[in-house]
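Dear Dr. K.,

Following up on our conversation at the group meeting, I've run the structure prediction for Adenylosuccinate synthase from marine metagenome. I'm pasting the input sequence below exactly as I used it, so you can double-check it against your construct before we proceed with anything downstream. Let me know if the numbering doesn't match what you have in your notebook.
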Amino acid sequence: EADLINKLLKVFNKISQYLAPTWKILNDYGKNEKIILFEGAQGALLDIDFGTYPFVTSSNTSSGQIFAGTGFGIKDNHQVFGITKAYTTRVGSGPFPSELFDEIGNYLVVKGKEFGTVTKRKRRCGWFDTILVKQTVQINGVSNIILTKLDVLDELNEIKICVGYKIDNSNYDYLPFNENLQQRILPIYKIMPGWKSSTFGITEWSDLPKNAQNYINYIEEVIKIKISIISTGPERSQTIDRNNILSNI
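The predicted structure tokens came back this morning:
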């Protein structure tokens, strides 16, 4: 026990110079109209309160936790950017209505390099689910969507988008918390033609294949939120700033 205390004291002596009232620093910075970027970890549907309980993490991952966790008071001049892939993924157990168990699912795993960063565990992959995205948009107050990994879909002949759930004889526009209902979900799909050409590295909206534009526009129409930024590769430069968001920061 004494050894542990001594080790902790050594650590404290190194980091104590960095101790400060971060809530005050952030609020003072905000008063000067400086841009502050907060980044959340883990997916919104892993939120302990609004996620797919019990298949969640141990904390709040929604945007509201930013204010509670930092002490930065809620302002009326913030924007919430929701980040989602052009298809759906999940690590570990839990409901996944649009999950693919066929060769297309395997294709998304390989092409998208869908393996856990730390565990290297294979991610589950499926079609884009507008129901889950709309639910997340409302809970988090999302103002703009950032769509990533569009290029992963380049080689598909057709692409499906989940636009609703059917459970028995009823339609649902949200994911019910009841696990018995979740297990009986039949996804309702909109089928769209693929573009069968490379979008990798494209940085201008006008250079995207027409069917890729149609895919994005349709998702935008259904979720009723602007898709302002689109990534077409892993590099920061491989980005379409569709609504000039980045250029105004």
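Two things stood out to me. The longest helix spans residues 2-15. The beta strands are 81-85, 88-90, 124-126, 128-129, 144-148, 158-167, 170-172, 185-193, 227-231, 239-241.

Best regards,
J.T.
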